[in-house]
Amino acid sequence: MAREILMPKLGLTMAEGTVTKWFVEEGNNVKVGDKLFEVETDKLTNEIIADTEGIVRKIVVQAGETVPVKALIGVIADKNEDISGIIGKNLGNKEEEKVADTSYISDVEVNEIKNTKENSDYILATPYAKKLSYEKGIDLSEVEATGYSGVILAKDVERYQNDKPRIKATPAAKKMASENNIDLSAIEKNDRIKKSDVAGYATKSEKSAYDQPTETEKAVGMRKIISERMRANWIATPMVTFNMEVDMTEFIRLREKLKPIYAAEGLKLTYNHMIMKVLGKLLMKYRHLNASLEDDTITYHNYVNLGVAVDVEKGLMVPNVKGLETMTLKEIAEETERLIENARTNKLNPDDLFNGTFTITNIGMFGMDSFTPIINRPEVAILGINRIVDKPVAIDKRVVVRPMMNLSLTTDHSLVDGALSAKFLSEIKEFIENPYLLID
Amino acid sequence: MREITFSQATLEAMAEEMRLDEDIIVMGEDIVRQGGIFGQFKGLPAEFGERIMDTPISETAIIGASVGAALAGLRPVADMHYADFLGVAMDEVFNQMAKIRYMFGGQTTVPMVIRAPDGLSLSAAAQHSQSIEAWFMNIPGLMVVTPSNPADAKGLLKSAIRDNNPVIYFENKILYKEKGPVPDGEYFVPIGKAKVAKEGSDITIVSYSIAMKKAYEVADLLAKDGINAEIIDLRTIVPYDKETILESVKKTHRLAIIHEAVKQGGVGSEIAAYVAEEAVEYLDAPIKRFGAPFTPVPFSPPLENAYRLNSEKIAKGLKDLF
Questions:
Q1: Which among B284, B287, B319 is the top mutation candidate for probing chain A, defined by the most A β-carbons within 10 Å of its own β-carbon?
Q2: What digits encode the pLDDT tens for the residues B62-99?
Q3: Are the beta carbons of A249 and A402 closer than 8 angstroms?
Q4: How many Cα atoms sit within 13 Å of B251 on the Cβ side?
Q5: Which of B124, B177, B122, B121 is nearest to B153 (CA)?
Q6: Is 50 exceeded by the pLDDT of residue B234?
Q7: In what order do the strands lie in the sheet with A239-247?
Q8: What per-residue confidence (pLDDT) applies to A112?
Q9: CA end-to-end distance (rounded Å), chain A
Q10: Do residues B40 and B68 make contact, with C-beta atoms less than 8 angstroms apart?
Q11: Which run of H or of E encompasses A276?
Q12: Is the pLDDT of residue B9 over 70?
């Protein structure tokens, strides 16, 4: 039975998706569970798995193309099945389709492909070996089996863990590498690495590539979305950034007190979590800052979904902590770390990314003292957090050294007036400098 | 510690209990005249007179009368001569003895013991050689014990007699003559509690009754290859000791079950299924069951020999899993 491969709907708000990669080619045999292609949508990447078996007869949407949900992407069918009906129905017979001719694949070849697939698909391992590999985060496909009938045993997993990968190199090569700060693992060689290999590598890496063609890349997937959104936000919003310096003495003291208590429960407590707690308290009061502006409609949210900007390998993601105003500090710490972890391992749900009402972004770890964050529309405000640094400040006419931090608040001036922004920021300062106010 | 035979151990248990409780009576075929086919009742008639009764050759009558006597307040011990003959009295066993306490809402109990000599002997053939304990794993309402040595034989028999519920006591015919250390004085072996007979770290061997001898042989063979087997003597089949088995499997990550009874649908099948259900993630090898082939016990001595458990083959089978 011919089967249409459609652009899946991955989450309530998904309207279109980009095919970023195909794992199969036309003419390939696929089984249930085989990876078909990769879809990127609103910054999330998902691998799509075959739920039927057959031959990939047609790939309609190529890697890099974006199509709406439910659009035809390809067709899986039997070898000689007529699929022109499916193609015609979906593409309106715009052109005479070049359907992959698979009739030349003899039965023998098909069987061979199938056999290799079957062998490589399921890894034979005992339940205990699987449990261990899961606990230790070891990929079973890399473990050598020594058990009965080629089954991976627990001891194989343990041996794999104990065997650290060793790089073979001559003593002279090792010495040269360490003197020149060269990482031996970066030198690709199956054999023992010699001094000449290190020397060759060093020369190669020093040579300028001015006469080589420059690498270009089409902005697809996450990068494309980020660039479109940022541009739209920038053009549509009259943004003002307010900076205010806060004294972190008490905040630091509070964190130092709480840190071991949280650590005992396996939780990491950061200044972000504590600032989020402050925001959870204040944002319900400052309804203009916890609002959305779309066209002429202002929506005052009766909840705080606080977005946290997370830098990931390919760009930036802003998952939000839902219902922040009702959460304890512990819950905030737990949920925030979960979202950050999921963002970095590409495990976020689309719903984690939607319906934010306010955002924070912290680049203090890079030594920043001030910046102008861009609002994540339709939100109307974003709070930038900078580094904490010891500074001389005048207190009661005397110069003392205090740990200071800048807050950079950007607001949408079309909804939030300057005085309101300043008042909001100063109240944040009050809570941070006197965190005992958090108790009410 | 003194050493006595399995048979003597059961005699001690009977005599001690009968001296303490006049309600204990014994019924069976040829037990007064002959002292039991394996001598396991020798001397009891002299001391306890008419409390030891020879019956007509009717297992139905023996079990039926015992159930009635138990309901009337006595504590009967019924001897089946051969476990194979239990089939004759099956309605009395599984519909009456096992069910009456439940049918009458717990108004009465059935405190009785069925003694059933089982297992292969020398060319006793298909109707006098069977091990049928697994049948009774599927009957709620009774308990089943299977001692493997003289000490447990005594302690379990005393527990069975003292218990207010019906207990089937399977005693292996070959084990009767086996000697072993038995403590002086009164002691009990609790029903439902297995024993770790040998501690080990690499594989759990669960066994009971005569197959325990094989378990020890297998463990010795495995030790030659550096494999340290843990042996669990189940002692009770119903209710079997799940905790001890699970605890051991979680430690050794391997499980084998050895019994003389037919492998298919045997006690080993139940234990294997239970461990697979509860602890499959702890298993580092398939569970292995060793039992008799699915065929009636042959009369021919060479065939009977081939039918028996073979320690070398078992050890080899287990070694291949490492």
A1: B284
A2: 999 999 999 999 999 999 999 999 999 999 999 999 99
A3: yes
A4: 19
A5: B177
A6: yes
A7: A239-247, A398-412, A381-395, A358-362, A306-308, A320-321
A8: 37
A9: 66
A10: no
A11: helix A271-282
A12: yes
**pLDDT higher at A203 or B251:** B251
CA distance A187 to B269: 56
* Helices A249-264 and A418-433: angle between axes, nearest 10 degrees: 60
Rg, C-alpha atoms of chain A:
28
Residue B280 near residue B274 (C-beta atoms within 8 A): no
Six-digit token string for B261 = 């009874």
Q: Is the pLDDT of residue B151 over 90?
A: yes
Half-sphere exposure of B318 toward its Cβ, with a 13 Å CA cutoff? 34
Comparing alpha-carbon positions, the chain B residue that sits nearest to A130 is B281
Q: Which run of H or E residues covers position A407?
A: strand A398-412
Structure ipTM: 0.74
CA–CA distance from A202 to each of A193, A195, A198 (Å)? Answer: 13, 11, 6
> How does DSSP classify residue A214?
P
Q: Please report residues of A whose CB lies closer than 8 A to that of B322.
A: 147-148, 153
Which residue numbers of B are catalytic? 128
In the prediction, which pLDDT does A164 show? 54
Q: Please identify every stretch of chain A with a pLDDT value under 50, giving residue numbers as ranges.
A: 93-119
Q: Which residues of B touch A130 (CB under 8 A)?
A: 281
Whether the full predicted model's pTM is greater than 0.80, yes or no, is no
Domains of chain B: 3-181 (3.40.50.970), 195-319 (3.40.50.920)
Element housing A17 (H / E): strand A16-22
Give the distance, in angstroms, between the CA of residue A142 and the centroid of all CA atoms in the same chain.
Answer: 25
Q: Which residues of A touch B283 (CB under 8 A)?
A: 126-128
Q: Side-chain half-sphere of A65: how many Cα atoms within 13 Å? A: 15
Reply yes or no on whether A352 is catalytic: no
Q: From the candidates A107, A351, A413, A440, which is the catalytic residue?
A: A413
| Closest C-alpha to B153, from B129, B132, B178, B121 | B178
B246 interfacial to chain A (CB closer than 8 Å):
no
Distance from CA of B233 to the nearest CA of A (A): 25
Test B283 with A126 for CB contact under 8 angstroms: yes
Give the C-alpha separation, B201 to A376, whole Å.
60
Walk me through the domains of chain A, giving residue ranges and CATH numbers: 3-118 (2.40.50.100), 123-162 (4.10.320.10), 221-438 (3.30.559.10)
Question: B253 and chain A: CB distance < 8 Å anywhere?
Answer: yes
Residue A413 annotated among the catalytic residues of the structure:
yes
pLDDT for the residue numbered A224: 85
pLDDT 10s digits, B26-73: 999 999 999 988 889 999 999 999 999 999 999 999 999 999 999 999
| Contact at CB, A127 and B282, closer than 8 angstroms | yes
| CA proximity to A308, closest of A300, A318, A316, A299 | A318
| Cβ(B237)–Cβ(B207) below 8 Å | no
Q: Provide the token pair at A69.
A: 């949900």
